[in-house]
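This protein record is not my work; I was only asked to verify it. The record follows directly below this note.
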Amino acid sequence: MWQSWKCTEAFRHAICLDLPGFGGNPASADFSFGIPAYADWLQEHLMGNAGPFLLVGHSMGGYVALEYLHRYPLKVAGIVLVNSYASADTEKRKQNREQAIAMLGANPEAYFRMFIQSLFQPELYWLKRPEGRLLRRQMKGLNPELMQRVLSGLKERNCHKETVEKWKSKVHYIYGSADAMLEPKMLEEEISEVGAYGLCIDGKGHMLPWQAQDEVQGYISKQFDL
């Protein structure tokens, strides 16, 4: 998803990383799949690059970015949460993840079909575009047991609202008004509560880095003077 961003001038030097267990990066046998483990892995893999870094995290990537900010604040120039947020899971969301974990065990094909439709709503025509076909192919290669461990880690992640309140001048939220994976109203309330910056893109869903690439890139470029 991020590779196309490197074709634009402002993001030509972007570092795109596959988190352990995804893309071309297999996870080690002892990797915990918790968000803190992902943040420590990120620190290890950024050590050879000059910082501080502007971290753009989409969905789960936003959780990793905030955990990284909490652990390594001097290494961060800014955080952009794209379709993501700082709160820990509510009991309802934990229950939803438990249901997803159970569904992955019983019928992974049905789970991935439902999941990818939720990602692209309300613009389901994206499923027929190259981006949607690519994502479907990649999901077929995902290990259901690995995804169960990832979902368990998401369910137990830390709340970082205090982290955002402390570093709010560095944190920006970008989200779609029609996101089927998150509740836009909840995001609005969190942004107001922590005093961060926010951009709502009307009519768009959960895959803003693809579905609204120009708007997202333009906002980031302006806010961080890229």
